[in-house]
Amino acid sequence: MTNTDKSQNVGKLAYTISTLGPVGFLPIAPGTWGSLVAVVIWWFFLAEQTLVFNLTIIAILALVAVLLCELAEKHIHKTDPGEIVIDEVIGQWITLLFCPHNLLFAFIGFILFRLFDVLKPFPVGISQKLHGGWGIVIDDILAGIYGLLVVVLLTRMIS
């Protein structure tokens, strides 16, 4: 196997992981599907974990995602392709960090993250001007932080 073949295989694997396999290719709004997958994973595996555990998982995934997205972009020769949805997982999990483990708040967190990810309030939109993997991932991290802040406000208002 030549270095070019190995590079192609690595790029293809990075692309497959960053699209969450078939999820990024689902019709209409692949980012929404990626966020939905993130909520399901959070519900069953992360909601009852400690803050330190969740922050560690998010940080590791964010760093890995930057690398994967960089490789995926190079593999398909396209900047910030819509089918890459691993960044939505990170942003969604950030929004859900302090979310109570109930369906209403999970739904609210889902909607808030999607809203901030689509509307891209300052500086979310500007952050997309970064190149490569950081340009793909950072806007979702910022949208996730906006969602997190609103979730925290809502939970404090209700309790």
The tally of domains stands at 1
Subunit arrangement of the protein: single chain
Strand content: under 5%
Number of helices: 7
SS-based structural class?
Answer: mainly alpha
Structural features, described:
The chain has 159 residues and is mainly alpha-helical. The chain has one domain. It is built from seven helices and no strands. The termini are far apart.
Give keywords.
0% strand, globular, 159 residues
Describe how the helices and strands are arranged.
Layout: H1 3-18, H2 30-46, H3 51-76, H4 86-95, H5 103-119, H6 124-127, H7 132-158
Short overview:
By secondary structure, the protein is mostly helical. The chain is built from 7 helices and no strands.
